Amino acid sequence: MISIQNIYKSYGNVPAVSDISLEVKKGELFGLIGPDGAGKTTLMRILMTLLIQDKGLATLNGLDVVKDYKKIRQIVGYMPGRFSLYSDLTVEENLNFFATVFQTTVAENYGLIRDIYVQIEPFKNRLAGKLSGGMKQKLALSCALIHKPEILILDEPTTGVDAVSRKEFWEMLKKLQQKGITILVSTPYMDEATLCNRVALMQKGKVLDVDTPQKLVENYSRKLYAIKSDDMHRLIQDIRSYEKTDSAFAFGQYLHVTGKDDEAEATEFENYLLKKDHSGLEVLDIPPSIEDVFMELLQDNE
Amino acid sequence: MKQFTGFLRKEFLHIFRDPRTMIIIFALPVIQLLLFGKVISTDIQNSKIAIRDESRDNTTREITAKLLSSGYFVPADELLPGDDVEEVFRKGKVKMVVTFGSNFEQNLERDGKADVQLLADASDPNTARILTSYASGIINDYVKKEKLQNLQLPHQINTEVRMLYNEGLKSVYMFVPGIMAMILMLISAMMTSISISKEKELGTMEVLLASPLKPIQIVLGKVTPYLLLSFINALTIILIGVFIFGVPIKGSFIFLMAESFLFIMMALSLGILISTIAPNQMAAMFISVLALMLPTILLSGFIFPIENMPAPLRILSHAMPPRWFIVIIKNIMLKGTGILFVWKETLILMLMTFVFIGLSIRTFKIRLE
Hints:
- By secondary structure, chain A is α/β, with parallel strands linked by helices.
- Chain A has 10 helices and 14 strands.
- Chain A has 2 domains: 2-218, Rossmann fold, CATH 3.40.50; 225-289, Alpha-Beta Plaits (2-Layer Sandwich).
- In chain A, the strands form 3 sheets. Chain A has a 6-stranded mixed sheet with strand order 6-7-8-3-9-10, with helices on both faces. Chain A has a 4-stranded antiparallel sheet with strand order 2-1-4-5, covered by helices on one side.
- Chain B is an alpha/beta fold.
- Chain B has helices at residues 2-17, 19-39, 58-69, 85-91, 104-111, 125-147, 172-202, 204-209, 215-243, 253-277, 281-299, 311-317, 321-335, 339-363, and strands spanning 47-53, 73-79, 96-100, 116-120.
- The interface between A and B is medium-sized, with 31 and 26 residues.
């Protein structure tokens, strides 16, 4: 459905996207995961025909992003990273406006947006600028869906939205996927990666790996320990200065630690830390999460 | 078409929901016109003068009475022969001191010659010039009519002066066309450029571009409301000019409105051009004020006569659209001329419109960069 071949785009001398190739299948929920500056927005704008790549080829449903930009704009729904609706128009006015722009009416496609729109319908006469973050995002999604797009491209839709709204939003995306819409979504939150069918891990304009979240985790071969103590701040310094430590990152209440060449055992860490007078020490052998995979890939890439 | 009307609806909602836009569109023209017409008028009215009469005879008293009944002057102080004139000026109230020499009447009747001195405060040179010329006019007129008709003077040349098209030398005749050019420029060019660059700044342009809307629909949708509002403004300004300030429309009203329409189109296309260059609202405003408003006020001949400008500015003034528009409306309103006399200016405005539209189409981006 979406085919990206060797896309390259730079701003001045800085490559924003360098030599990216991806395939998104029809009906797939595909995630672009990566920190700020990974090139997610640039790639999406190229697909949305808003930017022209310097090199490479990209097609959506067989339509070329450069030549057939007019046709692409008809079949794709787009939600940019910033809130891009009119703050001085009401919820209903915004929706009606986008319906007329796409030469349709709200009534005609109400079926598609009903599940989402009913949640903001009580506020339909409120100015869009006065909505909460979660409601703004639902409105933006409704507006992006109003013309029954075949493909939906969402640029960091959950950034700056509370945890409950984020969960709701992903449930909505799942429902839309069931209706046959191909969805390409970007997010800086790695925990959201598991909600996608497949993800591309991106960093500094490059794709580090593409696979299903399960496969990515399965392919992770390192031994991983979760370590906790009463003085986390000192713990991270001590662990990082330990000669057998390869990497150490804070994950919630624990530090996720790998040893050099996976030779260090849990007891070795424990003994080392006990010598450093850490109290309340816990060292656990844990299975990796997608975030560990990503941290590992990021580190290899540096 | 439905796409377009939907866009128009949205634009009108933007305009009507923004108090600042509403003030600029509806209050500004009226306020500015009234300000220029009433307050900042360069017409001489009730200027304070002081009289120093050293002869105190019939003639000087009659001349004083003439001066004060003309409506241009009101008496401030009566000065005694020994008073310090500069002291009077320094206080700042008095604009001119009229001094009659001693034995005025006697000298006039005996020699046909007498002395009056007009001292004006030239820290405001225009006013000083006008005051002295009005005063000498009144004095000469009096002397000629009342005193010299019995005397036979040889070889006398009488200059007969009439100010055609503006007999009363009212400055509002100049201000109405000038303000009209300025306001139409402001609303059409500045407001359009701001409204388009606002979409860029807020990111909504990204969604519009990613939609099936054609660039021409976006631009027309942006421009049409301002075309309508500017036209209403042009009409308001003309009505205020005619009914409050008594500016005549000697030529065809329809022709006047048609020329205004052309000027609005020119300003709108200029506004679009600015918006294609300006990345945000501030830049659009800055370019509009710096590149449009100031030159419109300073270089269009609205306030300062083009003939008096140094050569480079005079050449530059040719590129100022309001310059041509002001010539056109003055011709239509004050002289009552038709297209035959302003075809050149009309053609220049048309040409400018085409150039701006052409440039805008070339620079309008269907993508983000």
